[in-house]
Design a protein that fits this description.
- Keywords: Oxidoreductase.
- With about 250 residues, the protein is an alpha/beta fold.
- The chain has a single domain (about 5-240), classed as Rossmann fold.
- About 45% of the residues lie in helices and about 15% in strands.
- It contains eight helices and seven strands; from the N terminus they run βαβαβαβαβααβααβ.
- The protein has helices spanning about 20-30, 45-55, 70-85, 110-135, 150, 155-175, 200-210, 220-230, and strands at about 10-15, 35-40, 60-65, 90-95, 140-145, 180-185, 240-245.
- The protein has a seven-stranded parallel beta sheet, sandwiched between helices.
- The longest helix is centred in the middle third of the chain and has 29 residues, at about 110-135.
- The chain is globular and about 50 Å long.
Length: about 250
């Protein structure tokens, strides 16, 4: 069975797309007129603003709210997408939360929250939507990880662990789905100019930038361009890879 739907007519679901990297990814796919599903949890107006930007490109856009930690809510989202004929051919598991602090100060609730959003969310979304991809013998699952999932980071043990788990999930699921024509990859950025960096003081930001050979943080659109590339039909032989756009910070 050959998948014949043109790339520009496919549907992409981006979780956590109301801002930052997720918003940039949504806009990149919208630029070629694809059907774009913008997922968010609480940021309704921000998601609508991203949707308006995407619609300027002529894309069909749908915003959906769901807690990625909840199977029930993910299943309700699936029903809505089926009703709108927007079952995703491409899933970008981007929803995530950061955590800073010493491991000795981490509560069990904080640990569970970071694991649930960053790791369980990707599991639930992938499991929920991959069956349609398997049936059509084509699909793309792209997980947004982090450089810290590769190298680890002091005072970000919980976040690093969650993203490391996401990388392992990516590699294993890629092997499981490869016979079905579905690729699974992860993009693991270094420092990116998003709200996640807003908690750092100017001196801290400058210190981080000085460690990066490129001398700066990435812009969200630069991460989005890599996600877009991995979603292309001609990228079908790339699977199980953790690709880290980090300006030479980690080689």
């Amino acid at each position: 069975m050959t998948f014949s739907k043109p790339f520009s007519e496919q549907t992409v679901l981006i979780t956590g797309a109301s801002r930052g990297i997720g918003a940039a990814i949504a806009e990149r796919f919208a630029a070629v007129g694809m059907k774009v599903v913008i997922h968010y949890r609480d940021s309704h107006e921000a998601a609508n603003e991203v949707a308006r930007t995407c619609m300027k490109h002529g894309a069909k856009v749908l915003t959906v709210s769901a807690d990625v930690k909840s199977r029930e809510q993910i299943l309700l989202m699936k029903e809505k997408l089926e009703q709108k004929d927007m079952v995703p051919d491409i899933i970008v598991n981007n929803a995530g939360i950061a955590h800073y602090g010493l491991l000795s100060d981490v509560s069990e609730e904080e640990w569970d929250s970071v694991m649930d959003v960053n790791l369980k969310g990707a599991f639930l979304c992938s499991q929920t939507f991959m069956q349609a991809m398997i049936s059509q013998k084509y699909g793309r699952i792209i997980n947004v990880s982090s450089i810290w999932g590769i190298s680890g980071a002091s005072c970000e043990v919980v976040y690093s662990t969650a993203k490391g788990g996401l990388n392992a999930f990516t590699k294993a699921l890629a092997k499981e789905l490869a016979p079905s024509g579905v690729t699974v990859n992860a993009v693991a950025p270094g420092a990116v100019e998003t709200d996640m960096m807003s908690g750092f003081q100017t001196e801290e930001r400058d210190a981080i930038a000085s460690e990066i050979p490129a001398g700066r943080f990435a812009m969200p659109y630069e991460v989005a361009s890599l996600v877009y590339f991995l979603a292309l039909p001609e990228s079908g032989y790339i699977t199980g890879q953790i690709i880290s756009p980090n300006g030479g910070w980690l080689t």
